[in-house]
Amino acid sequence: MSADTASAKYVTVPCQFCGTRNKVNMARVAHRPKCRNDECAKPILLDRPFPLRDDTFADVLAHAEVPVLVDFYADWCGPCKAMAPVFDAVAGELAGRVLVAKVNTDAAPIVSQAHQIRSIPTIMVFRGGQPVAQQMGALPRAQLLELLRQGGVAV
Ligand SMILES: [Zn+2]
Question: Would the pTM count as exceeding 0.85?
């Protein structure tokens, strides 16, 4: 086993098109890995916020070998919209090192309640499936990175 293989980190995410669970080597995110379902074979896009729902959140978090940064938002939320480009940019910047995800709180009431989301946007950092840092309100890039550092993520 090469050093590369030994240090490889994986996430397991559902294909956004067909729902097939795909185990993705984070080192290969930039190569746009394709869904392993041959009839689908659509790209798994992890260089932008990955949408998680009530039925996928726990599974993805439980199997993520990298830290996960989650934006809990809603479509009607002005500050969420204002922050979206920043969050998108950070997702591109951290691609391969951090799984950047988003949860539409209106569409995911179970996850939102489980994490006591009372104000949106709320940004949370998870490591090993557990929340390690969180912050309410729209954050500029520097504060997003600072929140990750608070959670022990070297960025
Ligand atoms: Zn697929």
Answer: yes
**What is the strand order of the sheet 68-73 is part of?**
50-52, 99-104, 68-73, 122-127, 130-136
Please report, in tens digits, the pLDDT of each residue of the chain (155 residues total): 444 556 899 999 999 999 999 999 999 998 999 999 999 999 999 999 999 999 999 999 999 999 999 999 999 999 999 999 999 999 999 999 999 999 999 999 999 999 999 999 999 999 999 999 999 999 999 999 999 999 999 99
Catalytic residues: 77, 80
Query: Cα(75)–Cα(114) distance, rounded to whole angstroms?
Result: 20
Domain boundaries, the chain: 46-149
Q: Distance from the CA of 50 to the center of ligand 1, in angstroms?
A: 14
Quote the ligand 1 centre to 113 CA distance (angstroms).
29
Domain 46-149 has CATH 3.30.43.10: no
What is the Å distance from ligand 1's center to 45 Cα? Answer: 11
